[in-house]
Amino acid sequence: MHLTGTVASALLLAASTLVGAETCAKCDLEAHGFASLNGGTTGGKGGRIVTAKKLDQLIEFAAAKEPLIIRIDGMIKAKPFGFEVPVASHKTIIGVGAKSGIVEGGLNINRQQNIIIRNLNIHGTYDGKTNWAGKLGDYDAIQIDNSTNIWIDGNHLYEMGDGLIDLRRDTDFVTVSKNRLENHNKALGIGWTPNVIAKVTMNDNFFHSTNVRNPSADNLKYGHLYNNYYRNLTGYGNYARGQSQLLIETSYFEDVFDPIVAGPGGRIKTNWVKFKRCEGEIHLDVQGETVFQASSFYNYTLANPYDIPVDIPYNAGPKEAIGV
Ligand SMILES: *[C@@H]1O[C@H](CO)[C@@H](O)[C@H](O)[C@H]1NC(C)=O
Ligand SMILES: *[C@@H]1O[C@H](CO)[C@@H](O)[C@H](O)[C@H]1NC(C)=O
Ligand SMILES: *[C@@H]1O[C@H](CO)[C@@H](O)[C@H](O)[C@H]1NC(C)=O
What we know:
- The protein is mainly beta.
- It is globular, with a radius of gyration of 20 Å.
- The protein has helices at residues 5-18, 55-62, 308-315; strands at 48-52, 68-72, 75-77, 84-86, 91-95, 101-103, 106-110, 113-118, 121-123, 142-145, 148-153, 156-158, 163-168, 172-177, 180-191, 198-203, 206-212, 216-218, 220-226, 229-233, 238-241, 245-249, 252-256, 260-262, 267-271, 274-276, 285-286.
- The strands form 2 sheets. The chain has a 16-stranded parallel β-sheet that branches.
- Strand 1 (48-52), helix 2 and strand 2 form a beta-alpha-beta unit.
- The protein has one domain: Single-stranded right-handed beta-helix, Pectin lyase-like (Pectate Lyase C-like, 3 Solenoid), CATH 2.160.20.
- Mean pLDDT is 92; it is low at 1-18.
- The chain has 3 helices and 27 strands.
């Protein structure tokens, strides 16, 4: 049999369409920070690459037993309103380009491990008229209970009905980087546990026009916050509650009320932090000499804080070149 070039390439195209996505740019990156410890966070690396364009596909892929790199192509609408798709261990969930994600719902991780959530837009459970405070429903963008090795990177999370990111009940070895958290009441909550074991790295994020929990860290064993930009926060910025230890480095706070706060048992050490038009509490050193050193766990690079207001809004959030 002799195939012409055109027929052969048509057959190739058909075959590749059948197996789903063939390529996925930057989909096998691995986490840095605390998520790089405890065996590391690789998500679905080494598994098949699949693409979800509809909710039922996403639900099925996310629940699979095998490792998968799951591309979300386009905006998937959750149903019922506020539904959080359960994600099982060893998955990378990644948006295709800058305009993919989930609307009117989110993701839920409960007692799982090794999960990466990148390059997604998640929004739309916010009801500004009746529920600005987000107290009527538990409609988070990303809710995680009792799980380990999680990397949340490069997402744009905004206008949801409850928390944008909730790290609850001893969820440990987490890195939250390059996200844009915006136009929202409760941004990032950590805690809901009497145990002091969780370790979280939070770097290069842009918190913009949020109210509280930027983050609220309750009983966080080690919180390492660096290269973050906080702008127009009306409630409070970084809050060490319970027995939390926060190491806060190279951050820029602009128009923030109560930028850095320690509760009665909280400890804080700061390093090269800038403030512009801020008011209220600024606890730069609360038993700072007893706070952990991040460099004994991993290597990292601090930005010049004067670059943060320019670089972070540009770098945070989903990008066209990822997931394609
Ligand atoms: C986490 O899950 C384990 C069982 O896997 C349970 O024993 C523990 O109480 C849970 N922790 C919290 C704070 O709920
Ligand atoms: C600041 O954030 C609040 C919401 O928390 C918003 O209503 C207000 O418009 C924002 N202001 C600016 C200047 O962006
Ligand atoms: C940081 O990097 C240096 C040089 O590569 C290495 O010797 C050191 O072990 C690293 N530290 C950690 C905590 O990984």
